[in-house]
Amino acid sequence: MIFEKNIKKCLYSFNNILINTLDPRYREKKVPKMKTKSGAKKRFKVTASGRVKSGQAGKRHGMIKRSSKFIRSARGTTTLCKADENIVKSYMPYSR
Predict the structure, then answer these.
(1) R_g of the chain computed on alpha carbons
(2) N-to-C CA span, the chain
(3) What's the CA gap between 54 and 77, in Å, rounded?
């Protein structure tokens, strides 16, 4: 008699465990993943030291009115200042 009651209790608890793991209403709630801004991932890269690298500004059009010195100095890429760096890093949560 006691043995049968123990088996029933075990089966009941095992059944509840099964229901709780299979039913999506009883699963543990996970924190949703943060999304990376797609515009930021196309325009910026994070260096190994943690600085943010971007292309030079002001070279899309209107090169005739720019000085040769400006055009030369605006070649390649540059690193952002700390204030802008923090803004861009908030757009890319997984690239640290």
Answers:
(1) 29
(2) 63
(3) 6
Which amino acid is located at 18 in the chain? Answer: L
Q: Which long-range contacts (CB under 8 A, 24 or more apart) does 9-14 make?
A: none
Tokens of 26: 């009883």
Per-residue DSSP letters for 14-46?
HHHHHHHHHSGGGSPPPPPPPPPPHHHHHHEEE
**58-94 per-position pLDDT tens digit:** 999 999 999 999 999 999 999 999 999 999 999 999 9
Sequence-distant (6+) residues with CB within 8 A of 16 are none
Closest CA to 87 of 34, 37, 35: 37
Q: How are strands ordered across the β-sheet holding 44-46?
A: 44-46, 52-55, 77-79
Phi-psi domain of 28 (left: phi exceeds 0; alpha: psi -120 through 50; beta: other): beta
